[in-house]
Amino acid sequence: MRVMTEPVTTSDSRPIYTTSGGRSGQAFVGRDRLNVPLRPPQSRSEGADPEELFAAGYASCFLSALQSVARRDGVTVGTPQARAHVGLHAETTTTT
C-alpha cells in the first residue's frame, strides 16, 4: 500500500510539500526545489530520516529569528550556526 499526503498549496497553487512511502519514500518541497529520499533512522542507505529534516527546519527557523532580533537591535552576529538534536523516543528521568 502506498500512501500519498495531499500537498499543502500556496495562493498560486504551488505545492509546499508532498511525501510518499513513509520512511522509505520520498519528500518533495515546492516545484523541484528539494527532492529527498527518506530512510528509517539509523539506516545506512542514502537520504534523510524525517527527524533529521525536522531538526534542520527547526534550526533554520531559530537562526532566522535570532538574526531578525539582532538586526532590530542593531547587533552584528556574523554568521551564526545552530546544532539541533532531535529524538522522538520517550526518555525516563528521575529527580531527587
From TrEMBL:
Bilayer-spanning residue ranges: none
One Pfam family linked to the record: OsmC
Protein name as it appears in the record: Organic hydroperoxide resistance protein
GO process annotations (BP): response to oxidative stress
Domain of life: Bacteria
Protein's organism: Deinococcus indicus
Region named Disordered: 1-48
InterPro entries for this protein: KH_dom-like_a/b, OHR, OsmC/Ohr_fam, OsmC/Ohrsf
Biased composition (Polar residues): 7-21
Family: Belongs to the OsmC/Ohr family.
